[in-house]
Write a structure and sequence with these properties.
Radius of gyration: 27 Å
Order of helices and strands: HHHHHHHHHHHHHHHHH
Structural class: mainly alpha
Mean pLDDT: 90
Strand content: under 5%
Number of domains: 2
Helix content: 55-70%
Number of strands: 0
Length: 357
């Protein structure tokens, strides 16, 4: 009988070396408890089997034309096409990931304006898949499964909003709106059960009512990321020229005359001039947050946007700062949407649940 290879190896070592007392150290295994796992990894796993064909067809669906009954979807070609290509797709991984408390996509924040957020499209496609499954479950008489999928969309949006970028929070709001729209359809269908309602309500309660989908927090996040990044690219006599090249490398539109003016103004800055512009951008972010918290935040943010557009905070702020007026309007609308959804759930006429045997 052949000896195990590790025994042969040890025998060889014993012949070559003097006898020693071997101390065997237990090698720690990288085991992460379920409650400590990173949802981001599970979302990537879930997205692997979500083809571009499915993602495209999901994005093209018009839910106002689908309805909530078998009769309504019988001749709906778009619905039937998606139903066919997703018939064997299991959304369980998306739902599982949404329950994790930790979600970190490990964005390369030090890259500043060039930080990639490639996970956003994938997670949004996953949310669209769950919405379709929720509508299919409603149509086929599984309201509690539909509620599970709607609740998962809300939690997924909450996860994505943790990136600290406004685009992530805007995607999260789109996902949250998707979920609340579907929750309303379920509530008005007459098929919602108490258990289904509680499932959706619990997910919505996880969203911070003071800053749903972290819109305000994302301005703070961008302030930190962008100012740190600017600080790392602001040295030297040609600091402005180098920064201008980086700023407009990915998003520049050379045919836009206004942008070309901004590009040249930033490129002309030396180290001291750039330092002044960075300080003005810092003041702009602080002023945006002050406007966000005003008694009339929509009007205050609109006024702030006008100040930025007039160049009050310098050219750099014109390029870097978000469209705070539109963002604040979006946040206000979503706050109202969440409130209305809670009221709809509370007032929903529940279906008679089957008696337990």
């Amino acid at each position: 009988m052949m000896k195990p290879i590790f025994l042969l190896t040890l025998c060889g070592l014993s012949l070559a070396e003097p006898c020693h007392s071997w101390a065997v150290e237990t090698q720690p295994l990288h085991r992460v408890a379920p409650q400590d796992r990173n949802a981001a990894l599970k979302y990537w796993e879930a997205s692997v089997s979500l083809s571009s064909e499915i993602a495209t067809k999901l994005s093209e669906l018009n839910y106002d034309q689908i309805g909530t009954t078998q009769e309504a979807v019988k001749d709906n070609a778009a619905y039937q096409a998606v139903a066919k290509i997703t018939a064997d797709y299991n959304p369980a991984l998306w739902i599982e990931a949404s329950h994790y408390k930790k979600c970190d996509f490990e964005v390369k924040y030090e890259a500043g304006v060039m930080a990639l957020l490639s996970h956003l499209g994938k997670v949004r496609s996953g949310a669209r898949l769950l919405r379709f499954d929720a509508r299919r479950d409603l149509i086929e008489g599984r309201p509690e499964d539909a509620a599970t999928e709607i609740a998962a969309i809300v939690r997924m949006g909450n996860h994505v909003s943790g990136d600290g970028f406004l685009i992530s929070s805007l995607v999260a709001v789109a996902m949250g709106t998707m979920a609340t729209d579907e929750a309303r359809v379920l509530a008005e269908s007459g098929k919602m059960t108490a258990a289904a309602r509680d499932t959706i309500r619990a997910a919505i309660e996880e969203v911070d009512p003071k800053d749903p989908m972290r819109m305000r927090a994302s301005i703070v996040g961008e302030q930190t990321v962008m100012l740190d990044w600017l600080g790392a690219h602001s040295s030297g006599a040609d600091a402005g020229a180098k920064l201008s090249e980086l700023l407009f490398a990915l998003s520049g539109n050379p045919e836009d005359p206004t942008e070309e003016v901004h590009r040249k103004m930033i490129a002309s800055l030396d180290e001291k001039g750039l330092a002044r512009e960075i300080e003005q951008s810092r003041e702009a972010y602080a002023a945006m947050l002050e406007a966000w918290d005003a008694s009339d935040p929509v009007e205050a943010c609109a006024a702030m946007a006008r100040r930025i557009s007039k160049g009050e905070f310098g050219t750099l702020a014109l390029v870097l700062c978000p469209a705070v007026s539109k963002v604040r309007q979006t946040a206000t609308i979503f706050e109202k949407t969440l409130t209305e959804c809670k009221e709809t759930l509370e007032n929903a006429k529940l279906a008679a649940e089957p008696e337990s045997k």
